[in-house]
Amino acid sequence: MEILSVFDPAFAPYGRVVQGLDCGPVLECLRATTEKPTDGVQYVPSHALLEALPTFDVLRDSVYGGMPIQIGYCNGTNTKLNCVEYHRDSEINIPADDIVLLLGMQCDIKEGALDTDTIRAFRVPAGTAVELYATTLHYAPCDAARDAGFRVAVVLPRDTNTERPTLASPSRMEDVLLWARNKWLIAHAESDEARQGAFVGLVGENIDIASLI
Questions:
Q1: Which of 154, 35, 148, 144 is nearest to 98 (CA)?
Q2: How far apart are CA 103 and CA 12, in angstroms?
Q3: Around Cβ 205, how many Cβ atoms within 10 Å?
Q4: Among the listed residues 91, 83, 189, the one whose alpha carbon sits nearest the alpha carbon of residue 142
Q5: C-alpha span between 157 and 152 (Å, rounded)
Q6: Predicted confidence (pLDDT) per residue in 49-60, tens digit
Q7: What pLDDT digit, counting tens, does each position of 119-166 carry?
Q8: Sign of the CA dihedral running 38, 39, 44, 45
Q9: Residue 36 CB burial class (10 angstroms; 0-12, 13-18, ≥19)
Q10: pTM
């Protein structure tokens, strides 16, 4: 697997670099108020200190066009794919450390299954805000250097990744993928999520970039 830059034209189907956004306050807040676990990944959907920054208003009103949003974070250390997820909207990632994103396309899902050979890797430099489109499959970031870890601000519509809604009568294939609010998840058999009951649909190798960084 080749790790490309998000500035490479190959990134265009998956997302875009968000220009003109002052990421400085977000990076300072991440580094000062959040931990970087060394034994896994921690995700917090909403962080009050990040949401108190002026950047929050810009993201809500300009980037999301006035929609209610949340800013949380995904911190830790990771080198594996494990799962892919998607939402009904774009996600903004603002990393305080260099990261690698493992990305796929929703159109490649066939009856809930996705071949991991379709996954591509993109490096995001620290301080670079990227938008991942609604049709882009993604999950936890990966380290860009061995044992470096990461802190990443994650911007999504308000209440995404919170409690899963109760479906009165699940009847669609997609219903079995619904893992949380506005979060559809496909797991690899080797993942912790699979052991917790997530739908297993990632076919092939559970990608690990440890040898590439």
A1: 144
A2: 12
A3: 14
A4: 83
A5: 16
A6: 999 999 999 999
A7: 999 999 999 999 999 999 999 999 999 999 999 999 999 999 999 988
A8: positive
A9: middle
A10: 0.95
